[in-house]
Amino acid sequence: MTETLIFICAGTMAAATPILFAAMGELVVERTGVLNLSIEGMMATGAAAAFAVATVYESSLLGFAVATISAGLLSVVFATLTLIFLANQVAAGLAVGILGLGVSALIGKKHEGFTIEPLKSVDWGFLSDIPVVGRILFQHDFVLYAGILLIAIVWFVLTRTKLGLIIKAVGEAPEAAHAIGYPVILIRFLAVFFGGAMAGLGGAYLTLAYTPLWAEGLVAGRGWIAVALVVFGSWRAHRVALGAYLFGAISLLELSIQGLGLAIPSQVLSAAPYVMTIVILVLISRDARQIRLNSPASLGVTYRHQS
Amino acid sequence: MTKQGPRNDPPILELRGITKSYPTVLANDSVDLEVFPGEIHAVLGENGAGKSTLMKVIYGSTQPDSGEILWQQENRTIRSPALARSLGIGMVFQHFSLFETLTVAQNISLAVPGKLEDLSARIVEIGHKFGLEVAPDTLVYSLSVGERQRVEIIRCILQNPKLLILDEPTSVLPPQGIDQLFKTLRQLADTGCAIIYISHKLEEIRALCDEATILRQGKVVGTVDPKDTSTSSLARMMIGGEIPISEKSNHKNESKVLLKIDRLSLSSADPYGVSLKDICLQVNAGEVVGIAGVSGNGQSELMQLISGEQRFVTEGQGDLLFEGNPFGHLDPAERRSLGLNFVPEERLGRGAVPPMSLSDNTLLTGFSQGMVQRQLIVRKEVNAAAEKCIDAHDVRCGGFSAIAQSLSGGNLQKFIVGRELSMTPKLFVVSQPTWGVDVGAAANIRQQLLLLAERGSGVLLVSEELDELFEITDTLCVAYRGQLSKPMLTQEVDRLTIGRMMTGLGTTEERAAS
Amino acid sequence: MSRLRVEPRVTESVIAQYLVPVVAIVLTLLSGTVLFTFLGKAPSAVLYTFLIEPLTSRFGIGEVLLKMAPLLLIAQGLAIGFRARVWNIGAEGQLIIGGIFASVIAIHYNESESTWILPAMVFAGMLGGIFWASIAAYLRVRFNANEILVTFMLSSVALQILYFLVTGPLRDPDGFNFPQSVVFADSALFGVLIEGTRANTSLLIGLTLSVLAYVFIRHSLPGFKLSVSGAAPRAARYAGFAESQAIWLGLIIGGAAAGLAGVGEVAGPIGQLQRTISPGYGFAGIIVAFLGGLHPIGICLAAFFMAILYVGGDMALISVGIPNAATTIFQGMLLIFYLASYLFVHYRISFQGRAAAT
Predict the structure, then answer these.
(1) Does some domain include residue B83?
(2) Same domain, B208 and B301
(3) Is the residue at B41 inside a domain?
(4) How many beta-carbon pairs under 8 angstroms link B with C?
(5) Looking at the complex, does the CB of residue A76 fall below 8 Å from at least one CB of chain C?
(6) CB nearest C356 (choices: B67, B352, B360)
(7) How far is B322 from chain C (nearest CA, A)?
(8) What is the DSSP string of B290-348?
(9) What number is the average pLDDT over the span B470-491?
(10) Does the domain made of A2-294 have the CATH classification 1.10.540?
(11) Does any domain span residue B410?
(12) Tell me, what's the ipTM?
């Protein structure tokens, strides 16, 4: 029993990490008023690029770096389309997302079927030896801890700093932000890049630590779930993070139930995260007043400063 | 030009030959302007004369096609608002550039360096000094429009501007608020700050400004000392003729009740909206009823309830009756077929679909007028109706296929009003019909409203312009914080009373008196 | 000093609207050239295989028409919703459910030779698509749940349902445990249009739907209402066009069309229900809808072009060893370049010399 519990809790943290990175990135992007729906494609590109680099050069670190850069480049395409060419954000998100899926399939093709050494756990000394808690919390790789640090950083920046205030201002009223002298497009551009880079990191974590292998369709909707989590967390860092861990737990339950050999068709379990996402969206969105209070007012609206 | 006072110093700002064209209009045509330190300089012109464009040029939010800007006698290209601000140019916008979900102090901290606590103290201090009291930790969305303007002015003052631009600042203020604003501005000018004051209100300019530059159709038609110039000659310069005044005939009110709203209360679904409390309102046939008040006091919520954009079904209390029957459950189209037509305050995007033709925009509300058969659109009928409306109301455009957003504000408004009038409404509800409309079109629209009432229809007019309300209404009430005052006969009240009621003062005694 | 200025046009440029898809295709091909060079393939040969070869043989043209049918159907349906800014991105799932509904009839009446089987399948497929899209419409109208996310999630769910059915209830009992249904009887299969090809009646349904879509958008009041909802939501509310109606209509039409596309696949080239009944037509349909300018005639051309890419992609895989991913990349690039060039429909670039010398 304890073993199962430890397996589920420790596994939840690992399963949550890819979505966590992507969702934290998307949170910052949406706070500036941009809806980036290409997260799925960016995660896939990051995952494939990381895996390709890691198998060829046998360096996970390099893999993470390349994933960040390649997904970041995709986000530059998205940012250019929406912020400079003033394209509809939904359509642009789909376009870049599809491109990302194509690119990932192209990169990953040669590396299908390989596996690599997963990341090593951080040595926390005696902490790792604490019964139960030690095994749940202190036997993970450094990227997972970086994900937790990311929650803290995003939370702190958004709620406690001038930068957070500026991000909020740009997301709420870009015209007003421009009028008092802020470079709205630049700020949004940087946010989109950050979001892309984080999605790339999340994807890389999938192939370098979580699975660790590459197959087409590996991301399996995690990018879209990340977008949904931002709504679930009503644009607040700690709640978005909570959502990510919730989804980590769901995928772990899926694994454990399969392991227990219960007579539930595997397809029902595979569909569970998607159904869960829909249920959560419905529960959160039904309170239109709350959504209006928390969502950035200019979300999804194309901004062009008048001349 | 030899004058005493501020003009002894060299000008702080000088514009030479500023020209700016937009696809449909030459907004500024070789405009020259000189502004001196400590001077309150009016830029006067009617809607569409190019005042706002000129200010955007100075503030760096748009670039001129040609011409020079000299700031402190140095040629500058003001590329962005950020640069303008760093030079010492501040601007108070007509539509405020504030962030509703942030507090006053947070808003100001976005523009002024310094810690939040220090800023809060300075906000209070400046507030005392210039009569601009506002609590630093209030969220902006809960402030009245007048208070928001104070926040904007404080934000500018804290940046120690050398030049402050105010765009139509009194349009959001009740009469007493205007006096306070003028006091503040004079005090500020005494510190050496130059002020550009944009307005189309002649009396205000004569009361406040040292110098006035008058724009007409993008050109400077003169620079005068407004204190030495009569209102009528200012007006002639501004519009190139006399200001038309609507003729109000002494028609008799019929007693037939068209619209009756009884004790209506509705809490707003929008957290940033205004809740309506205990609204009573009646419009009779042949009567023009006005609702005065600074916008944001529940007028738009009330209008949406009357137009049907917001249904009135389960939530809220009270009665909404049209010719004695409840109509809160009907949608806008059904209300139109009863004879209730509405013209909203926003023309583009609400009253009309910007990228669609006037013909399509006729279909927008006229689709039940024989323009559709078996769900299929009869183009010939639609075009004919559009053409008729264009001709009947002197809408200047390229015919029924002209795109709505290519029309000037005044022409589009004439089209929308005309479109609704062509359905011969029993009750005509109009909100801010002359916002951003040129003087000619505004007079035309007011005349139409009076004509409609003469023919026995009821008119409900929501306006911020007291002049307009006093010119054409028979009965007036005042909206304040989601409440409506008792109706008063327009002939029996004065502006000061209405002004006080607009700020919530004296409502109780006026109510008792009427 | 001269500078570049982007300024809004007062009215949309009609010429630019026609040029945008052409420019997008040219730019995509140019990028493709770079990509293939990078992959070490001769670009001219690859592009020939991708774009020309499909049209050089009767078989190739037949395949193009075959793949055009679902793309056309899906894109026409989606475009109507997109005009009202109802973002249905789950046509893939609606196609799958449509295919399943039709298959249930085909499998259940597998012995029958009735001529009513096929019409019943068409009807059932349409219902299936509508049913799946209606879930998203209901959740959006009733609970304000974002239809983009819901339709996507429902697509993933639909795929799992399909997997479940072909490995369980609908599996061919004599099929050696392969995850597929029985092969449909001839009475449950669409007729072939051109002798010697696989192009079938589904294309005719698509073309008929295109005509209907044209009439709907151009000449009907409900079509006008949808356009207003998309162009100016507040004007739609002012006029009295209910938002919920636009959402329902947009999603139902998209779902019905995608469901029909599903019927065309199971009753067409596949002839049974199996794990894969669509190579991503649902997503490609989104691109076709945009590339066709959300206009029924434009969509016909775009669907034809996209079908060539699909067939060319298969040919390039076999003859030049280009991975299938290239087709996906092409699709993404097409939409990206389309969206970028679309700027010039609303804006124009002007070069401006400064009059005053400094």
Answers:
(1) yes
(2) no
(3) yes
(4) 86
(5) no
(6) B67
(7) 18
(8) EEES-TTSSHHHHHHHHHTSS--SSSSEEEEEETTEE-TTS-HHHHHHHTEEEE-S-TB
(9) 93
(10) no
(11) no
(12) 0.94
